Q: What sequence folds into this?
């Protein structure tokens, strides 16, 4: 990730985008457009989904109509698909780190605006599904309240004006290219959090590019730092996955001293896509052997440039033999860092060992240690995955 450029003035105000930045809108957009296409005898192409990121509803509609050759006008299409979206608003989940960031800014009295291309009423409806969100924004600016939407700077300039501040005091956080363009055109500082993996290179005009909201460092901008990091780790709402250990990429990780027990990702693709790529840690249970400390990477392994998002847990224990086919259950309780590329294999290995030491130590803290005894870890019979560790 690109390091932030030095800033000449300290930030006093923050402006957040909503769709794709705070909310996982893309999952819902894909679901709705897909079901519309199926009804119209077309096949959804997930590779084209990124074209809709950061567009106004009107622009997105025109792209879908053209890409799939649908016989509707933009207005007709919007009138059919808009009610389908409205039903889904409360199904848009906060992205990793969104609640934490909003609460942090509010607790520290940092005036924060919400600025989105969506019409104001849609924004209000979407955020009403999330406790404490509406009260956290000193102003909300919708696409229908200004002349031109992003990439024009109007929305951000309006937000700054309503907060009685000047653009150079504002920090914009945005997931889309039109949004980043708009923020820079407004004369603001911009952090890009691209929604589309592997497209970070397109965001070179941003002042900083980060992988997820978990990686926001407010102190880099003169804002109060987060104080929830503990011994190099960030506690997260735990999540739980399980499955049989399968053959991985056969990269000879074992030879490098870092065997990773791969799980069939298709079993829990929803949970995995909900979580940002990065290095996490927690507990691993093997039904016939015991419960062990674990550190893992989730994502595309930039050093190897995987085409698929993989889950690679390294159990912090020396086993005398392999355990392919055995049931492995993971409780993922904390975050360490985003995935990175490395100049050499040695430096990658050194960093993974450092992650192992951090996890090893942190898992003794009561806040993480307690999950070793969760029912999910102890009950060898439960199948599938849950997000709360409860018994299915
Ligand atoms: P693959 O490409 O098949 O994942 P690896 O070289 O990563 O091969 O080795 C992973 C396998 O090694 C696991 O599936 C498991 O059977 C075994 N293994 C032995 N020790 C460990 C460990 N400490 N953590 C994870 N897997 C281990
Ligand atoms: N791969 C990367 O390309 N970048 C990383 O930052 C990275 N971090 C990892 C952290 C841990 C704890 C583990 C277990 C793996 C990580 N990997 C990373 C994945 C690694 O490339 C893969 O497991 C190799 O097969 C290890 O040799
Ligand atoms: Mg492996």
A:
């Amino acid at each position: 990730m690109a390091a932030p450029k030095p800033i000449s003035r300290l930030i006093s105000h923050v402006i957040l985008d909503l769709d794709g930045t705070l909310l996982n809108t893309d999952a819902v957009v894909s679901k709705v457009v897909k079901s519309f296409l199926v009804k119209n005898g077309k096949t959804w192409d997930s590779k084209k989904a990124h074209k809709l990121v950061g567009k106004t509803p009107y622009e997105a509609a025109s792209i879908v109509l053209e890409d799939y050759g649908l016989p509707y006008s933009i207005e007709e299409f919007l009138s059919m698909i808009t009610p389908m979206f409205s039903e889904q608003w409360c199904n848009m989940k906060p992205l990793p780190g969104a609640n934490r960031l909003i609460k942090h800014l509010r607790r520290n009295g940092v005036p924060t605006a919400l600025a989105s291309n969506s019409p104001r009423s849609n924004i209000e409806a979407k955020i009403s599904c999330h406790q404490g969100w509406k009260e956290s924004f000193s102003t909300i600016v919708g696409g229908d309240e200004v002349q031109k939407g992003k990439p024009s700077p109007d929305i951000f300039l309006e937000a700054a004006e309503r907060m009685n501040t000047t653009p150079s005091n504002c920090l914009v956080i945005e997931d889309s290219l039109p949004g980043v363009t708009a923020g820079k055109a407004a004369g603001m500082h911009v952090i890009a959090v691209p929604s589309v993996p592997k497209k970070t290179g397109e965001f070179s005009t941003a002042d900083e590019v980060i992988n997820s909201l978990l990686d926001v460092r407010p102190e880099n901008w003169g804002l109060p730092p987060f104080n929830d990091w503990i011994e190099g780790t960030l506690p997260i709402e735990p999540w739980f996955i399980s499955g049989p250990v399968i053959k991985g990429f056969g990269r000879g990780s074992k030879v490098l001293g870092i065997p990773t027990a791969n799980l069939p990702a298709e079993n829990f693709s929803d949970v995995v896509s909900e979580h940002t790529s990065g290095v996490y840690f927690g507990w691993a249970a093997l039904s016939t052997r015991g419960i062990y400390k674990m550190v893992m990477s989730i994502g595309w392994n930039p050093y190897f440039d995987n085409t698929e998002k993989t889950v690679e847990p390294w159990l912090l224990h020396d086993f005398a033999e392999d355990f392919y086919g055995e049931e492995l259950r993971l409780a993922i309780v904390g975050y360490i860092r985003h995935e990175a590329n490395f100049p050499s294999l040695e430096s990658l290995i050194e960093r993974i060992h450092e992650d192992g030491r951090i996890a090893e130590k942190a898992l003794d803290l009561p806040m993480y240690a307690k999950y070793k005894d969760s029912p999910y870890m102890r009950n060898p019979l439960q199948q599938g995955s849950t997000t709360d560790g409860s018994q299915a």
